[in-house]
């Protein structure tokens, strides 16, 4: 009884109305079956996510409407529900919706992987595309497509490739180096080798097979495979839950290892887990859309600009990545219609100047 | 040096003897000794010999260009292919083709203009505050620039299918089917660049000791760098116009030359002359043999050789000063 008495004041102090919410946050409080529950919501992050959701909805609707057969929004939405003209329903449900879904899933996966890798390497340039993971996954997936000594489907092969490339890069870099740069350049080298292997395989197959695989090797949503999209969606769900579990550890990992360890986090375990999630996501996403690596850089960057600097913007990255991918695909489809520009080329043209700007800004803080 | 020349002679011989087609080493050897059948004679004399000659020219150009740009940027990782210089010439050629120009001589000068733009970008980046001191960041910026230029080239080819067909075999980087005309179109640029190189070799060696030392010795660093960049653009542009973009030769050759001759640029430039052709011809022979009876792009082999060198340079605990 005595302990109960002692703990009572503290319990009171923690009640929702007793302490004002920290600046820039909302406190959501509720009393459920006699227990006070409260949740601090970062105001800026919440608004950013809301805004990204709205933008995403607009772009998604546009990508259902626009194309070689333009539909007005009402027709498109009716088509989505299976009502209206048969042709419209077919265009929306069978052609545009799967493509939209593939775009959303790959964009989200690339961006989440990018955000995780940037945080664990403490370098904004350490995204899967730049350290060669994309190229490794592509090489293995191409091997699967053209049937070089394997019977595995592209998604698992891409996973194996992504893991192989990461392992090789890590082994070669031996340590992360100052600000992860040694790791990144080792990754560029590994990526070059895997890129060469991809070309080697493309050179060996018949010309029509190579032509069919070509758009995919530069990154395109046109050649997506339904089963690969399913693999990716399942993987994305698992990964997002895992990443959400890691988000506190990620926030702390942005500081030095010593700080994180002092706060009681197992730094190595967190890092390996985050890396595993990032590698898995990249592999699965590459199996769908090919190497569209720059989304992994642009998505988290947008998220970071919009969200508060308090935490690692995992959710915002997912939304921003899906937004960038869908918008880039839409642009690629419309820009030079009827020719379709692969989404990888669009993101490269938009993303590269941005990347250069990050790299060369005179007063840049490189560490995220 | 003597050993390298011997090695180069062996490589030339190998390039004449081995091929992806039916004419094997024995048949080719009989052509060289004066006998041999009609078909073998045709293959060796009008296919392999010009190809070998072009390979020697391209190798020399790329090797020397690599050594020069590393000295000008004072960065052991600088490489025309990695830094976007080759991608710049490829884009320029693609644009010229789309606009309707297809003459070989024009192609060389257009490629050189593209290379010059790429070089100036590299030099500007290398001189930026903060970036110049970190060799690795320059490479990263170059990789990004190459990616951007490559994407623009793909975009152009996508739009213009006719040019795409014309350019498809050139854009991957290969020596297949090159003729003596191609070598001739390179020669004036090679000569001019050679003269420039002789002029800047001494100042560059002084520049390696630092800007102030070079000024104190009576050199003008800005002028020297500008001339070096022009020489690099002439070399890379000519090589790219003929053989397409080939990466990593300019990284591996100066690396090997420094390992053999030490850090003095004047000696490593001379060594680059035989080393470049050795690498290019060796890679070319491999490209014919690995997937015979078809061939694979030369750039693939040089990437497979060069990427490990890149990693080795980065792994070296202290980056060697150039």
Summary tags:
heterodimer, A: 368 residues, mainly alpha, ABC transporter involved in vitamin B12 uptake, BtuC, two-stranded antiparallel ribbon, 14 helices, 2 strands, 70% helix, globular, disordered C terminus, B: 322 residues
Care to count the β-strands of chain B?
0
Shape of chain B: globular
CATH class of chain A, named Mainly Alpha
Q: What's the helix count of chain B?
A: 13
Task: Walk me through what this model shows.
Chain A is mainly alpha-helical and 368 residues long. Helices cover 70% and strands 4% of the residues of chain A. In chain A, strand 1 (25-32) and strand 2 form a beta hairpin. The model of chain A is unreliable at 1-13 and 363-368 (pLDDT under 50). Chain B is an all-alpha fold. Chain B has a single domain (54-315), classed as ABC transporter involved in vitamin B12 uptake, BtuC. In chain B, 77% of the residues lie in helices and 0% in strands. Chain B has helices at 2-17, 25-32, 38-73, 85-98, 104-127, 135-159, 161-171, 180-207, 211-216, 221-243, 249-261, 265-289, 298-315. Chain B starts with a helix and ends in a 7-residue tail after the last helix. At the A-B interface, helix 7 and helix 14 of A face helix 6 and helix 13 of B.
